[in-house]
Amino acid sequence: MNVSTKTGFLLMGFSDDHMLQILHAVLFLITYLLAIMGNLLIITIITLDHHLHSPMYYFLKHLSLLDLCFISVTVPQSIANALMNNGFISLGQCILQVFFFIALASAEVAILTVMSYDRYVAICRPLQYETVMDPRACKHAVMAVWIAGGLSGLIHTGVSFSIPLCGQRIIHQFFCDIPQILKLSCSYEFINEIAVAAFTTSSAFVCLISIMFSYIHIFSTVMRIPSADGRTKVFSTCLPHLFVVTFFLSAAGFEFLRPPSDSLSAMDLTISIFYTVIPPTLNPIIYSLRNEAMKAALKKVLLREEFSQRMVCLKAVFKV
Fold first, then answer.
1. Quick one: which of 26, 200, 223, 206 has its CA closest to 123?
2. pLDDT at position 320, please?
3. Which domains does the chain have, with CATH numbers?
4. What is the C-alpha separation between 228 and 226, in angstroms, rounded?
5. Order of strands, sheet of 8-11, starting from the edge strand that comes earlier in the sequence
6. pLDDT of residue 95
C-alpha cells in the first residue's frame, strides 16, 4: 500500500497480502449482512406485533437499532479498504468514525444498563412495574441513552483530535482506534491517555455497578421462587442479557485500558472484533432464539397473508 497520509491515516488492517485481504472482506461482508438482517428482523417484529409493545421489547428494539448503526460505522469502510488494497482513510472520515463509534458504543452500554433496571423492576418490584416503567418514562430513558452517547462521542473526539499529530500516521487497526491515535501525538504524554481512559472507565464503571446491583437483587429474588419452571423462565430472560453485557464490556475494557503498542498481534485484532463485530451479530440470535415470545411473533409475521403476498410479488418482479 503506497498512499500519502498527509491528509489522513493509513489503516494497517489484518494483512498486507491482498488475497488475505479479500478473504477478510468476504468474511466481514457475510457477518455484516447477518447483523443487518438479524437486527432489522427484530426491529420489524417488535414494531408489527402489538403483543411485544412492552418496555422490555421497546428497549430491545433500540438496542437492535444501535447494533445496526454500530457495526455500520467500521465494517463497510474496512471491507472497502480490503477490496481496494488501500487502507487510506481521510481525516474527516476518521473523525466521524471515532465520533459515531464512541457515541454508539456508549449508548449501547447505557441501553444495556436501562434494560437491566427494567428486568430488576419487573422481577423484584412487579406491583410497581407499570408505574415505574410507564411509556413516558421509557421514552425519556431512551432519549437520555442517545443524548449521553452523543455527548460521550463529542468529548472523546474533541480530546483525541485536539492533540497535534506527528510522524507517519499509521494506525495498527482496521478502524480509527482512539488508543492508536493517541500514540501518534507529537508530544505523547501518558496524561493524555489517562484523561480519555478515565472518562471512559468512570462512565462504564457506573453502568457496570448499576447492572451488578440489578442482577444481585434479581438472582436473590429468583432463588426464592418455589417453582422450578418459574425460575427457568426468569433465567432464560435475564442470562442472555447478562452474557451480552459481560462479553461487550470485558472485550472493550481490555482494549481501552491496556497501553497502546506500536503493532498489534493477532490476539489484539481478535479482541477488537469481539467488541466491534460480534456483539451486533450475536445479539439478535441471543435475544430471539431463547425468547418464546419473539419466536412466536416471528412465526406470526412470516405466516401473515400480507407478508406472503409481498413475497409473491417480489418473486414475480425478480422473474421479470
1. 223
2. 44
3. 8-314 (1.20.1070.10)
4. 7
5. 88-90, 8-11, 170-171
6. 92
